[in-house]
Amino acid sequence: MSHVIQEKRPVTTPAARPAPLSHARLPRWAPAAVAAGSLAAGCGIGAAAGWESRTQWGLLSAVLFVAATYVVTAKVENVRQAKDRVATSLVWVCFVLAVVPLASLAWVTVTKGLEVLDVYFLTHSMNGVLDAETGGGVYHALLGTIEQVAIAALIAAPIGMLTAIYLVEYGRGRLAHAVTFFVDVMTGVPSIVAGLFILATWNLMLGFGPSGFAGSMALAILMMPVVVRSTEEMLKLVPNELREASLALGVPKWKTILKVVLPTAIGGITTGVMLAVARITGETAPVLLLVFGTKLINPNPFEGAQASLPLYVYEQYAVGTDAAVARAWAAALVLIVFVMILNLVARGIARWKAPKTSR
Q1: DSSP of 112-127, one letter per residue?
Q2: By the 8 A CB rule, do 228 and 183 touch?
Q3: How many Cβ atoms are within 10 Å of 302's Cβ, its own excluded?
Q4: 18 by DSSP, 3-state: which?
């Protein structure tokens, strides 16, 4: 009898399919489509409900955009990705809410300011021109602003930079803590308080009259803490290895600061000083208390009342006539352009003086 030996083969069962490594994703144009649909829905609901404020339409569209983003993403992808997209959507909504008012302000200022702004407006003063009449210019106010801001910068920049150098390079113990505390306090001081301080000391106690220099001292008080903080942060970014290498070669500490530390941080320091200058350029309260304003050209900042751009804008807008309001818009545009030029100069200097990196 022969036996047939059959080889038993293992019984195979269908193996479980591995989980997919990728999942469905929304196309690239999906966020833009959701934003457009939310904007259309928000405007439609606002118009149907009779809302007159376009701000309400925009806020409703923003809420609908975030909600629709979550619902669509959760349905197509997953809940975890939906939460991630909602966070991104909130960032974009906050960005738009911040940019829209700035863009609207810039657009209105440019459109209204260009109606009067010309060469005549920039080269003439208000001498002999009534506030209700057309004509006149902003030359006297522009000259006063440049002089007052320049004097304030000459006072505040060296004091602020030296204070920051002391805090970073030498400051230890109670004195350094006290200086840091008072710098923090001065950062939040209202501009009217600085003006009242100079008014009480320089004008009332010492008996000096209104002048551009008095306004510059008040502006310098507002500028100093900004210069101190910005310079302090820039000096902290300088690597300690550079200081140690200079000291190891026998270079005195003061010369190390002057020749190594400051040149390395000069770009950021210059940017901070320029930003501080831009901050004080638009201050009105100290100028109103200490400088008084005038329609005449006063090139001497140390004697007599002097005009300035912020005060000029306030005075012209307070008149209320069409001609005066138009001059106020044009002066506001000049002030914005002046601050913009300062910021561009600061960025240019920072890029020019920044340490060059090479491989």
Answers
A1: HHTTT-SHHHHH---T
A2: yes
A3: 13
A4: coil
CA distance 281 to 189: 16
Q: Residue type at 200?
A: A
**Which residue is associated with the tokens 């803490």?**
225
**Cα 204 vs. chain centroid, distance in angstroms?**
35
Give the three-class secondary structure for 292.
strand
Which residues are CB-neighbours of 34 under 8 A, at least 6 positions away? 65, 68, 69, 72
At residue 144, the 3 state secondary structure works out as helix
Asked if residue 85 lies in contact with residue 69, where contact means CB atoms within 8 angstroms, the answer is yes
Q: What is the pLDDT of residues 270-322, one digit of tens each?
A: 888 888 898 898 888 888 889 988 888 899 999 888 999 999 999 898 888 88
CB atoms within 10 A of CB 222: 23
Say whether pLDDT at 9 is over 60.
no
CB 160 within 8 A of CB 224: yes
Which residues neighbour 182 within 8 Å (Cβ) at sequence distance 6 or greater? none
Q: How far apart are CA 62 and CA 45, in angstroms?
A: 13
- pLDDT for 110-154, tens place per residue? 999 998 888 999 998 888 888 778 888 899 999 999 999 999 999
CA distance 277 to 172: 29
Half-sphere exposure of residue 352: CA atoms within 13 angstroms, side-chain side: 8
**For residue 74, which of 62, 86, 64 has the smallest C-alpha distance?**
86
